[in-house]
Amino acid sequence: MEIRIFYIVILLLFINCEAKSQLDTNNISKNGMYLEIGGVGSYGSLNYERVIFLKAKTKIVGRIGVGTYSLTDYTSSFNPDIFIPITINGLLGKNHKIELGVGQTVSNTIQANHSNWKPERETNLHANFTIGYRYQKDKGGFIFRCSYTPVIEFYKYYRHWAGVSIGYAF
Amino acid sequence: MKNIKVLVIILFIAISCQEDDFDIINLNNNNITVLGHGGMGIGEKYPTNSFESILFCLNLGADGTEIDVQMTKDSVLVAFHDEILDHSTNISGRIFKKTWSEIENATYVGPLYTNYRLISLDELFTNIDNLNKYIYFLDCKNFNPDTSSFYINTFNNALIKIIDKYELENNIYIEFKRRELIQSLKIKRPDIKIFAYSNFATGLKLVNELDLQGITLFVDNISKDEVLQAHYNGTMVAVLNTKTRSENIEAIRKNVDFIQTDELKHLIKILK
User: Fold this and answer.
1) What is the pLDDT of residues B61-73, one digit of tens each?
2) A149 falls within a domain
3) Chain B residue whose CA is closest to A124
4) Structural domain count of chain A
5) N or C end of chain B: smaller count of CB under 10 Å?
């Protein structure tokens, strides 16, 4: 139920974003791409983000990414583990920003089936959080982020985690 | 001229790293058996002793693998390293104080967003294709302080049962630290190969007293001369704790018979 509500909120925010962002100046970059090492996408992920709310020094961005840390399974067959982080992040500040976020990571991983012990793809959801620093000019350009990104794996186990990102806003 | 010199040096280094550069002389038909340490070793993608780690190790081309073995309260042998479950799984306690049904759904706290499961030796051997193609070093972790003959018999009977069930007497090497377990197994089944897991002096003493096949110890706890001394004694040598490429090479240069490595891909590349 919580998961459905989360996705509905994200959808509404994305729909709402176009109207809001039209109100603001064109000099402010609304898109970003960055590579995150560690972070909510597991060990590394490539991410796209879009501003969905903008007011003075405050931004809310929606982010989606994709990550993996292995392309083959334990039988050496091509069978990548896939991680999709989806987050809503609030940014506060001008060039040096505080970043706070919440979201979910969808994991689609390979492990042995517990009955026949053959490789099996399994999808799970995990909650993620972001508390960090971001350098990014409003007009765009270089992005640097470093964050504490704890996760609640399988919505059961709290785990400390962190990430560093570099990217480009446009 | 300078470029030619650099090229010659690079070629020399490349040639000197070739497999046939190792002039191996040992008791294992002058070959070194390449074993994973609990599968793929420490620090790899899969947790050590997990099914995935062991299968990946065998699929990569290793000759076999070392497996840490513990026994539950109801005599089920489990592949697991640590004395307590707390640090690397989602449950707590000690394996010898739990029944198999209490721990069979435990998962490793492994890489983020994964849930690899604990496995019993029976489940493991049932699900390895071409089981008899590989070598298995069973490192018996007898954390249970019980020294009674009941415990010793129960543990060794569990080992014998699984070896016989899968007809692995030619493929399995048992590693023991405790003398009483060695003595008991030796009496029950003299055909099973046993290695003393100890330091060099104590290990060699146990080998001579109890007529064992070999000794197991950390690679940095034995010299090339000591390996030679063991070989003169008719004792095979297995080493572990080769965590880097240079430690793999160091182990090879010592002419040991078995290497249980944490840097498996490298060892396969240079020896296979």
Assistant:
1) 999 999 999 999 9
2) yes
3) B113
4) 1
5) N
Count of alpha carbons within 13 angstroms of residue B270, beta-carbon side:
25
Phi and psi, residue B50, nearest 5°: -75, 155
Contacts with A105 from chain B: Cβ below 8 Å: 113
For residue A75, the chain B residues in CB contact (below 8 A) are 55-56, 59
Is the CB of residue B262 less than 8 Å from the CB of residue B37?
yes
What's the token pair of residue B53?
């780690």
Residues of A in contact with B56 (CB under 8 A): 74-76
Nearest CB neighbour to B112, from listed A42, A75, A156:
A42
Q: What is the CATH number of the domain that holds A46?
A: 2.40.160.20
* Complex prediction ipTM: 0.79
- Token pair belonging to A93: 């500040």
Beta pairing partners, B261 = B36, B242
Residues 51-80 of A with CB under 8 A from B: 69-70, 74-76
Please give, rounded to a whole number of angstroms, the shortest distance from the CA of A31 to a CA of chain B.
28
Domain assignment present for A4 = no
Percent above pLDDT 90 for chain A: 73
Q: Is residue A155 part of a domain?
A: yes
pTM of the entire predicted model = 0.86
Which domain covers residue A45, as residue numbers?
30-169
Helix (H, G, I), strand (E, B) or coil at A150: coil
Helices B245-253 & B264-271, crossing angle to 10 degrees? Answer: 50
* Residue A19 located in a structural domain: no
A138 residue type, one letter: D
